[in-house]
Design a protein that fits this description.
This protein is an alpha/beta fold. The chain has three domains: about 150 residues, Alpha-D-Glucose-1,6-Bisphosphate, Chain A, domain 3 (3-Layer(aba) Sandwich); about 200 residues, Alpha-D-Glucose-1,6-Bisphosphate, subunit A, domain 3 (Alpha-D-Glucose-1,6-Bisphosphate, Chain A, domain 3), CATH 3.40.120; about 70 residues, 2-Layer Sandwich (TATA-Binding Protein), CATH 3.30.310. The protein has 14 helices and 19 strands. It has a seven-stranded mixed beta sheet, with helices on both faces. The chain starts with 5 loop residues before the first strand and ends with a helix.
């Protein structure tokens, strides 16, 4: 069965349209409950959300779906995605649900599902839930005396904050460190500044005034200009930028220069390898990670294991191969000793531990390799199959010939937006730019009706 609801990271779409209506959310809740209500115990689901306006529509619809199937609902309000994964395990729940479209603008929303182990669902389980959505739900409704109940967990935020702080090295504090933290007007707008302050940092918090519309708008990990300018303006030691659901992190050094996910993974890999914490002898990354990152890991005796794009694929490879560190260049960093999914705040604390325990500024401590010139261009498509175009295929072939053995090209469809992502990297920056521009132009022409 082909999946029509689920993409690479749950269900995602424009709010109140297509797959992201209250009706679909209701049916997804019913279908997920049907799949996960096994056994005689009282079944429960944890539901969190980010700060999008559409959360007010989707949350009660999901809740109604679960309750109608006899499942109890625990509502925690705006919380980071990794907090929902953690609380699902902590509360012995059968299922966790996060309403978020991550780094997308406010008009989008999504439904991410976590199993009782805190991990995202497999393709097989998602297909089974889709099958339930399409038929058989009304036949399995709970009788009136077996309906579920709903309640709010008032201390959910505090539980997650204590969990996060426990991942910071014992004996260390952030005293004397001035930190700018951009919460993207999203799910971590309260917990992130509080955690940093409780650990002793002087905190300049931005992106902490959500209004339902401004999540990820001119802020967060997808737009770091303001965060980096605030690092300079406040003469801060470091800047942190989370995305809308706080499962990814990007960093700015004290000079306002960006430090991406590859550098963050390299930093943690080196520290963990030196302290004996790293498992598997390597780091799991995606095909997007820079060749400079791979070359650095090789130079310190570590392996780079690559997967297709998507943190779920990184996690799958980590679990099957026994690795405890992996992630994406975009800032998803999975530290499997602590979390079952990307956690921007926990990853940030690992970076801060390196900075605060040494006598080097972030510009030195957090920049371990020189990346090869790499360019990514997103081409918005109107429809069709532009990658099947003869012109696009020929342009890609020509680009590969021009780069020869000095670089590589990666073309892929976004799993969450109507985009074709065109990436190239190599030793010659001007050549990389020309190759990307040529392919992007060909894709745009091929997708124009």
């Amino acid at each position: 069965m082909t999946r029509t609801l689920f993409g690479t990271d749950g269900i995602r779409g424009t709010a109140n349209q297509g797959n992201m209506t209250a009706e679909i959310a209701l049916r997804v809740g019913m279908a997920a409950a049907l799949h996960f209500t096994k056994g005689e115990h009282r079944h429960r689901v944890v539901i969190g959300k980010d700060t999008r306006l559409s959360g007010y529509m989707l949350e009660p619809a999901l809740m109604s779906g679960f309750v109608s199937m006899g499942m109890d609902v625990i509502l925690v309000g705006p919380m980071p995605t990794p907090a929902i994964a953690m609380l699902t395990r902590s509360l012995r729940a059968d299922l966790g649900v996060m309403l978020t479209a991550s780094h997308n603008p406010f008009q989008d929303n999504g439904i991410k599902l976590f199993g009782p182990d805190g991990y995202k669902l497999s393709d097989e389980v998602e297909r089974e839930i889709e099958a339930h959505v399409e038929n058989g739900l009304s036949e399995n409704l709970a009788p009136p005396n077996s309906l579920g109940r709903a309640r709010r967990l008032d201390d959910a935020r505090g539980r997650y904050m204590e969990f996060v702080k426990q991942t910071f090295p014992k004996g260390l504090r952030l005293d004397g460190l001035k930190v700018v933290v951009d919460c993207a007007n999203g799910a971590a707008y309260k917990v992130a500044p509080s955690v940093l302050w409780e650990l002793g940092a002087e905190v300049i918090a931005i992106g902490v005034d959500p209004d339902g519309y401004n999540i990820n708008r001119g802020c967060g990990s997808t737009d770091t200009d303001y965060m980096r300018s605030q690092v300079i303006a406040h003469q801060a030691d470091i800047g942190l930028a989370l995305d809308g659901d706080a499962d990814r992190i990007l960093v700015s050094d004290e000079k306002g220069e960006l430090i991406d996910g590859d550098q963050i993974m390299a930093l943690i890999a080196k520290r963990w390898a030196d302290t004996g914490m790293l498992e598997g002898g390597g780091v799991v990354a995606t095909v997007m990670s820079n060749l400079g990152f791979e070359n650095y890991l090789t130079s310190i005796g570590l392996e780079t294991i690559r997967t297709q794009v998507g943190d779920r694929y990184v996690v799958e490879k980590m679990r099957s191969g026994g690795y405890n560190l992996g992630g994406e260049q975009s800032g998803h960093v999975i530290l499997r000793d602590y979390s079952t999914t990307g956690d921007g705040l926990i990853a940030a604390l690992q970076v801060l531990a390196v900075v605060v325990s040494g006598d080097r500024p972030a510009s030195v401590a957090c920049r371990l390799f020189q990346p090869l010139p790499q360019l990514l261009k997103n081409v918005r498509i109107a429809g069709g199959q532009p990658l099947e175009s003869a012109e696009v295929k020929e342009t890609i072939k020509e680009g590969e010939a021009r780069l020869a053995n000095t670089g590589r090209i990666l073309i892929r469809k976004s799993g969450t937006e109507p985009l074709i992502r065109v990436m190239a990297e190599g030793e010659d920056e001007a050549l990389v730019l020309a190759v990307v521009d040529d392919i992007a132009a060909a894709v745009e022409r091929a997708s124009t009706p």
